[in-house]
Write a structure and sequence with these properties.
The protein is mainly alpha-helical.
Amino acid sequence: MLYALLLPFVDRFHALNLIHYITFRAGGACMTSLIVSFWLGPRIIRLLKSLQKQGQPIRLDGPERHLIEKKGTPTMGGVLILIALAVSTLLWADLANGYVWAILMITLGYGALGFADDFVKLTKRSSKGVPGRVKLVVQAGLGLAAAFWMTMLMPAPIADSLAVPMFKTVLIPFGPFFPIFGMFVMMGASNAVNLTDGLDGLAIVPTIIAAGVFGLIAYLVGNRIFAGYLQIHFISGTGELVIFCSALIGAGLGFLWFNAPPAAVFMGDTGSLSLGGALGAVAVATKNELVLAIVGGLFVVETVSVIIQVFWYKRTGRRVFLMAPLHHHFEKKGWAEPTIVIRFWIIAMILALAGLATLKIR
């Protein structure tokens, strides 16, 4: 919005030339979303507490201490993230850019689905929300639409192909089936972050780290000079996604202020489904879907732990882990919550560095 409003005055006021620079607008987006989060946070938390007298329903089969320590904590805090993220992105991004709207569609669409899921859980006082099949259908529909939209914005042959990290010329053609692949990337990322969100601050910090990595990737992929130097695929227009990723970092940091142990609010599915979908969508737009599996490796491991647990239990009647997802396994082993959370953050940072390394290794 500011980009379109200020652009006509650049010739008359040279200081406004800063609006041309993505880095300047990215910094503005981060600070804006952070300020919005700090300002709205206490108000939204008070509202959620007044509407949710008993807080988020706690799983009876979960770690015993959750029934005591986390009882009464409100959920749906993802609303705070989404408001700050949307306001900041709309304010600082070039709204003529199709990638920005495609990413926002996925983020807000998945956020609305998560909100409905949280609402059902609260009204039924149950840990089961919207039926799983319904959630998957909605996620698939939104993901397919967004992937098809982004494919239409890209040039051939990269539009319908999968780029392989560390191989500068390798493209795996998917043809008309690429939007389906992109859909699964967004769905997978969304549900992976959702599974990881189980302890105070556990999901939001790895999300912030991943957003930082993909903000840098978007900047490099969208810059012809840097893309040529690093021998990565140049995709015009994706540089504008730096604004979105920066806004996500600011919104995430603002939310972490209130979600730090002991959490004053949980993000709920409203936040986790939308944030995962956003990361998946940015990965599809920048053609770094496989890098997302590295950078978001913590989310992958958490998801795989659930798959292994369910598969093995159905076959043998025995559990591989004391409890899944994996962070609950360590809780059952007696690890303190801050220990688990901080160690998982460290792992997320290491994986982020590994993902960035793929940009240089060719």
